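## Example record

The block below lists the input lines for one assembly entry, exactly as stored, with component labels intact.
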Amino acid sequence: WKKEEFRNCNQTPFCKRARSRKPQHCKLIATDVIIGDGDLTAKLITPKEFQENPDEDSSGIASNPLILSLSVYENGILRMKIDEDASRNPPKKRFEVPDVILPEFESKKLWLQRYTKQVIDGDSADSFVVYLFDGYEAVLRSDPLEVFVREQSSGKRVLSFNSHGLFDFEQLRVKKEGDDWEERFRSHTDSRPYGPQSISFDMSFYGADFVYGIPEHATSLSLKPTKGPGIEESEPYRLFNLDVFEYLHESPFGLYGSIPFMLSHGRTRGTSGFFWLNAAEMQIDVLGSGWDAESSIMLPSDQNRIDTLWMSEAGIVDTFFFIGPKPKDVVKQYASVTGTSAMPQLFATGYHQCRWNYRDEEDVKNVDSKFDEYDIPYDVLWLDIEHTDGKRYFTWDKALFPNPEEMQKDLASRGRRMVTIVDPHIKRDENYHIHKEASKNGYYVKDASGKDYDGWCWPGSSSYIDMVNPDIRSWWADKFAYTQYVGSTPSLYIWNDMNEPSVFNGPERYGTVWTGDNTATWEQLRVSVPMILTLGLTGITFSGADVGGFFGNPDSELLVRWYQVAAYMPFFRGHAHHDTKRREPWLFGEHNTKLMRDAIRVRYTLLPYFYTLFREANVSGVPVTRPMWMEFPDDEATFNNDEAFMVGNGLLVQGVYTEHAKDVTVYLPKDHTWYDLRSGTAYKGGKTQKIEAADAIPVFQRSGTIIPRKDRFRRSTVQMENDPYTLVIAVDSSGEAEGELYIDDGKSYEFNKGAYIHRRFVFSNGTLTSVNLAAGTQFLSDCTIERIILLGHLSKPKSARIEPSNHAAEVELGPLQIQSKIRSSVLTIRKPNVRVSDDWTIKLL
Amino acid sequence: ENLLGVAPQDEEYYKGLSSSGTIICKDGSKTFTTTQLNDDFCDCSDGTDEPGTSACPSGKFYCRNAGHTPLSIFSSRVNDGICDCCDGSDEYNGKIKCKNTCWEAGKVARDRLTKKIATFKEGVIIRKHEVEQAKILAAKDEAELSRLKNEENILKGLVQQLKERKEQIEKAQEKERIQKEKEEKQKKEAEEATVKEQKGEEIVNVQEQEYKESKSDDDARIHNHPPSGQDPNKGAADPGVSLAHDDDDDDDDKDASVHNIEEHAEKNEESSKVAHEHDPSHGSGSKEEDASENAESSSREELGRAIGSRWTGKKAEQWQDEDAGTARNNDDNEYDETSDTAHEEEDSGYDTETEEDHQHHEEDDNEDQMDDVGGDEADDDSSEHKYESDDEMEDMEGTSPSWLEKIQQTVRDFLQAVNPFQTPVDTSESESVRKEYDDASGKLSKIQSRISSLTKKLGHDFGPEKEFYSLYGRCFEIKENKYVYKVCPFKEASQLEGHSTTHLGHWDKFEESYRIMLFSTGDKCWNGPYRSLTVRLRCGSKVEVSDIDEPSRCEARNW
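Predicted structure tokens for the full assembly:
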């Protein structure tokens, strides 16, 4: 981490300008308000009395009107765009981000028919009101300019734009004599041929106790204020994609991805969200309460309000207001704009073993065989850049990997896959086929002078494929074909490395993301939790941190604790820098091997649950791992908690982030009973409990849920395919519980054609019922349920009657976890052996 | 009963099922009945009731493997679609058909065992021979040592006598010289007085210059001695080498290897902790800082290298020839004392020195490449040679008493013949005394050096029967890709790449009852511990390095 290499706000002219503006800086008013093409549009102009010169302002900027449009979409989404007036022939069209918004989103637009006029707070001009959704409406206030969403009945604001008058929009210009628009930082120069073109504005979130989101930063889940009275001098949160060497925790500096989507949550109002579709460098201030004390603006103060300042270097205003009001409503609304996460293949949800670098075929064989020797399941072995012939991607180092196909086939014979890395920088070597083709066909990104950009990366002098061009993308895609990628087999998968510049909204539709080159410290283990949760809130649910920390050497205790937490994160991969010591799970003594194996095994037993959650995320956008407040939006004690998290709605995971911890305190949300995952011990919610944590981190199943597991251990997910299920039912205070199970072939897109099993299990009145959620399912499975465990059930039945087969199953006391040393006696239905694909009921007698 | 998966020695345990119908799980957790045995539902958490299925996670499945060795496998392997037992008994649910390969596999194993026994027998003979040889060689070295000590005593006396005589002569000569000077001085006095002022100025100038020089000398030192932790990796790693006989791995060895690994991990952990304490900003070597501070004026390429070097730990200039397999050795000859001294003393400074080094390496690299083209197929993977004798005793090898007697006689002659009080001193006589003194003291120091190296050698632990005696002074090499690993028992181990050397460790000790040679405290890894090397010894018919392994770049492990 080298502070001086990164531009701070003061060194960034657009940020410095925007941050120093005072409230009511904006003099724009809305005129010519009409409804057209289903949108409400208006011109934003500066009234004459604020124009020093009607044609030119003091800085010589022609003040053309701006065009504002409001559109309404299904389920409570307001879209607001502000851009230059195209009819005035601006020198250049400003950049609008392609590819992010789902094509089908437009079909969800609600055609506006009319507006109503209203005078707000004695304004001199009318405001224009349009109906939004479910008791919410959008308001365009003309003078002063403000756009907000409010509750129809109470008139309470939910989200508002420019309430503090900080909106500023620098219009493009034609360069005149004497204009010096160049900006410099260190060795970089930005020529800015059309002058500065930044945009900034204030956004207010009402009824909000906290705001969240805008990854990626290594910081807490709830975003700390960056400016305001009593707040320590801080940079704004920066959104600027960087592969940061040894990044710091607790820093607002931008990391690998940028997602300008913020959520607010408060107990009274609930949740709302705001997304600015803009890919330029952005800086965002969260303003501490009282920041506007000197301003004369009076905003409704009966609600908790959090003000934020958004500053971007370029682009247009293209923003989305999400009204919630529940946390899951907001993420669903957001997902309807940018898409949900891809359904992963089952193996990808297992454990991944990676290192820079597994050296050669013998090394691969040895590491693979050690997993079997220690009976630790894993699914994927990864090869980093050194496997290639001199960092020429799609090639193999012939001395180290002479028989890559045989190697992959050998792994595949035990159900394991291999992942090889491909980077987007291409070695400038005339004998390298990719370079030859790319340079010959002009496929490289060009520099300012029109020549192939010649940069520097791992292979040395390198150029970059122009991925913005669809033809070139398709050429690049062909390189992955088995016939073109020599040495690849169907069990080989790709690590699409160093694609930070392209991580913006929407990558979840295609792949998984890691939290970057972290470090083997307790602080970085700790910060990995809020980082994953934030990514999940903003759409990228399939993410994980390098287990153990990429840089440095974790001691055995840190490594064990890391495995224990990471086993519950969506993407579960061990990885290490090449100068670190080997750290595979069997290298730290028998006891630590056992603890790491236990952690990985628990993950594997829970894969049916995880896979079901991945499907939920794929359908709805609700993430696999969730902040507690997403499940318990009324429990204020959870709003700021980012050391524990939920997996789905059923499991609460509390990590251990300190050395030598024998126990750990965990807050269990109110109105539920919580069952320890290992012992079955019941804990009352609504208070902080101290839980023994010497050998494992505390994990609890919430009362009222049913969780599917597969308790047999195998080498990898492939061998688990036909294994029977265990259902764990934790009943709530009225003796009821429910849960879901989703199954498909785990490898193809056939599920898109209906080839899957989706069941809802409902337990009520002592009867468990399996309900089909997938009408007309075409997927077959012979898998049965071998065991049903009941937690919190009051009576002690001796047997159960299964219908429609009309046979009986014994009910006895058994262990909650079969291999666990912890003694537990829980009510167990022994061998009901019903098929998961069938409808049935099991009644306790 | 259904005793599928039960080992013969455990069959007795299940007898109770047929008599009483119920027995207790081995861990005492509960009881189970005949119908619960192998019914594909786990009743005993230790797996007692499911020896033949995958129902219990901690169970074991026994396969008889008639024709080969019986095997006990994890119950997770039962009916998982993979043939683990050579008799195929672990896959019985019909999803996959496993061939019985026990007879073929058994034959291969038996043949290997036979061959191994033969190798061991051969090895035992060689060992016996080595032990006998060691006795003779050690006796010879001890005899030489005692003889040399005797000679040293005599020679010491002679040298002392010669020294006294020489000093007497020198005293007389000095007296003569002073007298002569006195006369000449009077003669030139007037002449010297005229140039005195001018000379004074010169002295001032010289002083200024010296000041400048010493300043630049300091600068050079700063460059030359970066803080610890900076030495970026040389693209190479600590390897493991196995100084062993060409014999296949066997189960015993595997077990031993596991121990080896664990031990190693702990060691490195300690050393890396130390490293972190010393260098809290780990990962930011001083070289990188230099690079990034200069970044404003750097070209994009230089910048790229500087930034890239953070991930790799390489110095930027090391990138250049990477793909050609000629990653260059760095310029800090950390363990080369003479070179360090040279840097400190010479005013020529660091930069010039570096420049020269670079050119030198490039030329060498080119030569190497050409050599490779011509002579690749002739390369031996493994070789052995003696390291250069460090005792410089070649000319003394044939030392005999007659030589000593001759010297003694000469000295006696001198003492009688030369009269030190004679004036003027006889020049030729005094030269002879001086020469004789130089010769004798030179010989004395050679004898002393030989005594010291012999004492050092004999002080080593060569094993309970001195069986490793003959390895002293020998080196063994193995080539692995672009690296040559060189192991010199009782001395050091290194990794060579072209003309660059990475020091893997000094001889430390034997471990595990003389089954492991440990070389430790080699070059410091970037951002990490010191390199080290473990040599695992195996019995066989040849002394050679048979295999090398490098599990992580800065950790040494050997097979």
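Chain A has a mean pLDDT of 94. Chain A touches chain B through 61 residues (CB under 8 Å).
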